Inverse folding.
């Protein structure tokens, strides 16, 4: 007799794994399936920024909860609360900064505007051309490349089954639930959660559901080890730069500059067209970066839907199937969204509302 | 508008240079980009300007011949240039490279990768001490600058390179304390039939060994360095016997020396091939993971050709011929009127490959060598990770090179994993009870060489940066 799981989760990123951990608390028998290694998609290759200053206003309550989740995970994920500065260099950027950060502060993020003197006292090596800056003491980062290792250990501790390098080829429904044909055998489960990030669309299509999921191709770069240059995380008013210096001295540079490729064809490609301005912007912010050698640049696929709000709830039209993904700022919010999703699957009222995947989507 | 050519070649060693000469001779506008100041690659490396009057060696003579042919051809040679990124734009390749501290680019209809080899150095306790260099690094030092690695050197490693390095050290006035090789005399005897193709090289090899024996330099066959000792630099090495699978056995013997040259075979430098989407397969007899490529340099990607040691370790003689083959294939792909037959070249390529592959077989480390890596031995030099750090990572469930890299940062430093990845793959294979061919290399990413941020960006005005529109509020 083949074992039947209470729930099969397709996708072993932060969303899938954190949902599995929540369900394990209530004794649900869950299995997590990933086409590669756990936490090797967007969850493991993003820049690890935990910044309330770049979260959407409507998602702020979730982001605040997310920050507490990361703080609790602590050293195991390389969590550091450093505080973060966001910088503007032109009048236009300063306006954007004032307008947006004020709204985010209203939504509960402890963001303040700081003088140039205060900025320089905190971070001597930043550009002197800064026109305006905001600060949030809650900001920091975690080490996203530890995501896989972290969840592997946690899933094992909680006796949650997982299969890596397990490609789900086909999902069919039967009277008792779902049959998943995978590269490592057939898996039966009474419920199904799709948490496959940028790969959600083809999987949902298997069940006849058209999810309007697309992917952004975000670029991240890392330098060789440098002497201490910055101690806080640093961003740009447009959100198109994130920068932090890790404890080993390496500087990590992100900001969502677009590489090339689609999830179906592999892992995507870096392109000089966007890498060069990304690194130029970083050098404008931190002039000493020009001496650093870049040792590796990569891209990750960040899934989204037209309104850029999450998909979190029941998969429309399919009983006992759920979907969780497309969370903008998903690294920060993911662990909390997984908890909410778990509550929902267990039939409990989530602490904060979910995001109906069956809603009408309007383009932002 | 960027400069565009018919054929761009990366690497000006025996393969790349010959590919270039061939493509140019077939009427293709050909550009060859190389990291060094002069063509010749690692094997035919030119002497630096300062020492032009030094005596000639066969490598210098062959290299000079090649350099004259290039000078006489229509090839454009771009020297001192590091290619850091290659992209496909519409129907053309775009190569981004650093030259004079700036990033430049050129376009090409077809691209030939002739990126050569890199050396595998077996990690052993003490191998990261100052005074230890690779055999290939030592040859570069001696060919270009006539410098010896130290005053008294232990030369250790596999295949023919140990004997070449030892004899070069002596020629340049250095002292060789001992030669230590896990190969046995019987290994060499078995290789002889495949070597008959190049009696000239065979004869040189005999001369090296005879010279070393006459000088009374001890040759420890079937031995390996078990440990290199010293505080701030090398002061002695411990050498012990190895069994037929090269596991160390028996008591160690102490040899005093201030320097060590050590190397254990070559591996195809296939980073660029992988970056462009060429699949790699594990072929131990070619040095490990090699890109999938035909004998004539053709790959599954239109307009992309690979030749020389970067396609698998077959040695310089085979690389020269495969360079010509790839140059011809490339020319045919853009100039239909080129119809020269390549059958003669193919035959000589196969003969030359047999010789090169016999050398590779002698050079590749056997399984027992892994036992030289103690738990405390550094495996990843850039991040100072020891074997036990890697094993702890595997213990948490990381069963792929990508997962180990994510969890431990092994391979994220300046070398980009060039020094550690095959050792890490062997450790994973060991722990997971898998064969090495099941442990694929990690995802390749740019830059192909570390590049400074300022070289990439060049001079720029903030207002000229094309910053995209911000994310939705």
């Amino acid at each position: 007799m083949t074992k039947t799981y209470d729930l099969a989760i397709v996708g072993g990123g932060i969303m899938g794994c954190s949902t599995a951990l929540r369900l394990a608390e209530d004794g649900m028998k869950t299995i997590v399936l990933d086409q590669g290694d756990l936490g090797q998609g967007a969850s493991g290759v993003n820049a690890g920024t935990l910044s309330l200053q770049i979260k959407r206003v409507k998602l702020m309550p979730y982001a605040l909860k997310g920050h507490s989740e990361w703080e609790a995970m602590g050293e195991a994920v390389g969590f550091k609360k450093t505080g973060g500065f966001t910088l503007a260099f032109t009048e236009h950027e300063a306006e954007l900064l004032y307008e947006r950060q004020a709204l985010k502060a209203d939504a509960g993020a402890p963001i303040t505007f700081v003088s140039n003197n205060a900025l320089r006292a905190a971070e001597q090596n930043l550009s002197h051309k800064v026109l305006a800056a905001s600060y949030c003491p809650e900001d920091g980062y975690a080490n996203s490349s530890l995501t896989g290792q972290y969840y592997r250990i946690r899933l094992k501790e909680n006796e949650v089954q997982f299969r890596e390098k397990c490609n789900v080829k086909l999902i069919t429904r039967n009277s008792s639930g779902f049959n998943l044909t995978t590269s490592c055998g057939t898996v039966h489960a009474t419920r199904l959660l799709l948490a496959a990030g940028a790969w959600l669309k083809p999987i949902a299509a298997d069940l006849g559901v058209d999810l309007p999921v697309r992917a952004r191709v975000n670029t991240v770069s890392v330098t060789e080890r440098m002497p201490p240059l910055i101690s806080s995380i640093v961003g740009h008013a447009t959100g198109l730069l994130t920068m932090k210096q890790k404890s080993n001295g390496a500087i990590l540079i992100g900001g969502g500059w677009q590489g090339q490729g689609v999830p179906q064809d592999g892992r995507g490609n870096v392109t000089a067209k966007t890498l060069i301005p990304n690194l130029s912007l970083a050098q404008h912010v931190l002039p000493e970066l020009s001496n650093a050698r870049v040792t590796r640049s990569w891209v990750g696929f960040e899934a989204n839907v037209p309104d850029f709000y999450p998909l979190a709830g029941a998969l429309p039209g399919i009983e006992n199937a759920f979907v969780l993904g497309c969370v903008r700022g998903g690294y920060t919010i993911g662990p909390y969204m997984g908890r909410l999703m778990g509550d929902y699957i267990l039939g409990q009222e989530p602490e904060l509302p979910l995001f109906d995947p069956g809603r009408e989507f309007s383009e932002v | 508008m960027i400069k565009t050519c018919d054929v761009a070649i990366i690497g000006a060693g025996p393969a790349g240079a010959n590919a270039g000469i061939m493509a140019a001779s077939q009427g293709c506008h050909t550009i060859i980009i190389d990291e060094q100041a002069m063509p010749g690659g690692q094997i035919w490396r030119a002497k630096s300007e300062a020492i032009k009057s030094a005596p000639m060696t066969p490598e210098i003579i062959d290299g000079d011949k090649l350099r004259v042919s290039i000078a006489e051809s229509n090839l454009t040679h771009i020297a001192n240039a590091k290619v850091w990124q290659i992209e496909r734009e519409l129907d053309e390749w775009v190569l981004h490279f650093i030259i004079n501290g700036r990033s430049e680019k050129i376009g090409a209809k077809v691209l030939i990768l002739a990126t050569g080899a890199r050396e595998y150095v077996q990690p052993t306790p003490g191998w990261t001490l100052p005074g230890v260099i690779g055999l290939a690094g030592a040859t570069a030092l001696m060919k270009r600058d006539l410098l010896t690695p130290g005053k008294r050197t232990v030369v250790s490693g596999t295949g023919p390179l140990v004997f070449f390095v030892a004899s070069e050290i002596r020629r340049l006035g250095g002292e060789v304390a001992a030669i230590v090789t896990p190969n046995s005399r019987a290994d060499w005897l078995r290789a002889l039939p495949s070597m008959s193709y190049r009696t000239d090289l065979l004869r040189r090899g005999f001369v090296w060994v005879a010279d070393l024996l006459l000088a009374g330099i001890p040759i420890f066959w079937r031995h390996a360095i078990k440990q290199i000792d010293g505080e701030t630099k090398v002061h002695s090495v411990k050498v012990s016997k190895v069994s037929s699978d090269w596991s160390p056995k028996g008591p160690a013997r102490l040899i005093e020396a201030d320097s060590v040259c050590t190397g254990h075979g070559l591996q195809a430098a296939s980073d660029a091939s992988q970056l462009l989407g060429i699949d790699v397969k594990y072929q131990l007899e070619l040095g490990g993971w090699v890109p999938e490529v035909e004998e004539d340099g053709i790959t599954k990607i239109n307009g992309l050709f690979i030749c020389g040691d970067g396609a698998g370790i077959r040695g310089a003689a085979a690389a020269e011929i495969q360079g010509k083959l790839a140059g011809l294939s490339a020319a045919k792909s853009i100039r239909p009127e080129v119809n020269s037959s390549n059958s003669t070249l193919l035959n000589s390529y196969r003969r030359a490959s047999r010789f090169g592959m016999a050398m590779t077989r002698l050079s590749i480390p056997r399984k027992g060598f892994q036992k030289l890596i103690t738990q405390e031995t550094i495996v990843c030099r850039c991040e100072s990770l020891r074997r036990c750090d890697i094993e702890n990572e595997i213990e948490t469930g990381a069963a792929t090179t990508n997962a180990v890299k994510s969890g431990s940062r092994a391979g994220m430093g300046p070398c980009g994993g060039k020094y550690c990845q095959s050792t890490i793959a062997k450790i994973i294979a060991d722990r997971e009870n898998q064969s090495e061919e099941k442990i694929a290399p990690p995802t390749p990413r740019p830059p192909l060489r570390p590049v400074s941020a300022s070289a990439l960006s060049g001079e720029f005005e903030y207002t000229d940066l094309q910053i995209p529109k911000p994310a939705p509020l």
Summary: The mean pLDDT of chain A is 96.
